[in-house]
Amino acid sequence: MHLLVVFFDDGADRAVRELWRRIGVAPDLPPHLTCASAAVIGPKVRAELREDLSRLWVPDLWLHALSATDDALVLGAVVDAELLAVHSAIHDVLAGRVKHPTARHLPGSWTPHCTLLTGDDDAVKAAFAELHPVAPIRAKARQVAVVDTQTGGIDPLRNASTAPR
């Protein structure tokens, strides 16, 4: 599975890691927001994403809404028109060009969030009780990348230092 993710700046990264520490979680990936996922996001599509991201950038996010969904505890991002526009632009590139896209990340179905915990109902409830209430976290995009969940490989598409102003 390939994920298209946004990694956060150092301050937001530390804040999410502190939440993880409080609930005893140590994920494989740094804190992030997943914009898309598919069985394969190939090299040609990645090149086009790099080109589009040279003209676009993910706006700052406010991670604020602590909520439980299915078997997960997540910190939801405040959704605005700018974030939805970038998400839509990403999916315009991916449309019809990736294998087996995941429906929950498609425009109209996507709920932007940073996952804090996945587990059974009791674990999610206990973690919610430990963390509630959560202070809002301002997260700036540090990098947009494709992550291969099987190998752990990370292919950066855009770094904050090269983002348009």
Automatic annotation (TrEMBL):
GO molecular function: ligase activity
Domain of life of the source: Bacteria
Keywords annotated in UniProt: Ligase
Cited InterPro entries: Cyclic_Pdiesterase (IPR009097)
A Pfam family per the record: 2_5_RNA_ligase2
Name the record gives this protein: 2'-5' RNA ligase family protein
Naturally occurring in which organism (per UniProt): Saccharothrix xinjiangensis
